[in-house]
């Protein structure tokens, strides 16, 4: 009986170490996003800036479309994903000197903000809404791996 208890304690120890490592990994990633870059602002500072700067530019239709597009994200992470995507959409809108967030700007920003694996769902959702994806093919072709680092220069090509 004590051998079984010993094994359970060992297994429980590994589970706890594993869970702590996973939590530590996510905390460390958040810490790295808070570190200031060359311009003195962190990634999260810029995200907050773009969301706040463009919050009055969103129409109800675009807010609903964004909610629909982030629906496959697990609910625990949905707010974070929505915030990141909304900040990238806002950045694109400001870069293009838009006064409102349009469907085109929303889709461009969504593509830029998300990894390539999420684009399959986006294509499916856009097809359901009868939105043509041809104008966005150049953005789909550039995966986030290639696009995220120097996206502004590549976006302007």
From TrEMBL:
Segments passing through the bilayer: 6-28
Keywords: Membrane, Transmembrane, Transmembrane helix
InterPro entries: YneK
Domain of life: Bacteria
Pfam families (alphabetical): DUF2621 (PF11084)
Protein name in the entry: DUF2621 family protein
